[in-house]
């Protein structure tokens, strides 16, 4: 098995372990589940309130502001719950990156199909000797890139964390409606 595949497997293993730890420390707790439910309900109420035309402008705006403040408070409490977990996961990732550097330090494990810009060369060449080719890739770069990708995929498919509902603009979540002019 090539070093590239081993590094990607290690990256997947580290990402899976950190997400499993997150699940056991945060996501399965009753307090987090209640906050998640509150956020979902608040987002639904906020969408309904924004879509309704009932009531005068001041009362409607006051209700919208109230729901937004409840939503912000719930997200803030959830962030505080996740802080300790994020520190533990960061420590695991740092130890794993250190181990990858110790094992594959100075060895080019991949070749990019292009020469990276000088700004990014420090990232792609981390731990490689100066005389390595410009398009060579270090193990650290592959590990970190794979870890970011796998963590995002695991988060997306298992939907463990807080919902991302209102954080994306409408043209990203539903481009057909924007193009056709629907509201």
Strand and helix layout:
Elements: H1 3-27, H2 30-51, H3 57-104, E1 108-111, H4 118-124, E2 136-138, H5 139-158, H6 170-173, H7 175-180
Antiparallel strand pairs: 1-2
How many distinct helices? 7
Distance between the termini: 53 Å
Principal-axis shape = elongated
Strand-and-helix sequence, N→C?
Answer: HHHEHEHHH
Main sheet strand line-up: 1-2
What is the β-strand count?
2
Quaternary: single chain
Q: Tell me the radius of gyration.
A: 22 Å
List low-pLDDT spans.
none
Biggest sheet: strands, sense, closure? Answer: 2 strands, antiparallel
- Structural category is mainly alpha
Helix content: over 70%
Mean pLDDT equals 83
Give the percentage of residues in beta strands: under 5%
Q: Tags for this entry?
A:
single chain; 183 residues; mainly alpha; 72% helix
Task: Describe it.
This protein has 183 residues and is mainly α. The chain has helices spanning 3-27, 30-51, 57-104, 118-124, 139-158, 170-173, 175-180, and strands spanning 108-111, 136-138. It has a two-stranded antiparallel sheet. The model has no long low-confidence stretch (mean pLDDT 83).
Short description:
Helices cover 72% and strands 4% of the residues. The chain contains 7 helices and 2 strands; from the N terminus they run H-H-H-E-H-E-H-H-H.
């Amino acid at each position: 098995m090539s070093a590239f595949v081993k590094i990607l497997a290690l990256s997947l293993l580290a990402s899976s372990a950190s997400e499993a730890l997150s699940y056991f420390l945060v996501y399965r707790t009753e307090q987090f589940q209640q906050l998640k439910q509150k956020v979902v309900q608040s987002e639904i109420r906020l969408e309904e309130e924004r879509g309704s035309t009932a009531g005068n402008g001041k009362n409607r705006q006051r209700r919208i502001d109230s729901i937004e403040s409840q939503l912000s408070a719930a997200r803030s409490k959830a962030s505080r719950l996740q802080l300790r977990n994020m520190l533990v996961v960061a420590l695991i990732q740092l130890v794993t990156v250190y181990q990858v550097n110790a094992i594959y330090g100075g060895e080019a494990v991949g070749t990019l199909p292009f020469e990276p810009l000088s700004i990014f060369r420090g990232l792609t060449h981390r731990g490689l000797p100066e005389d390595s080719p410009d398009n060579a890739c270090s193990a650290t770069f592959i590990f970190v890139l794979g870890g970011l990708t796998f963590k995002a995929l695991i988060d997306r498919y298992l939907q463990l964390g807080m919902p991302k509902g209102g954080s994306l603009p409408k043209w990203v979540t539903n481009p057909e409606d924007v193009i056709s002019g629907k509201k």
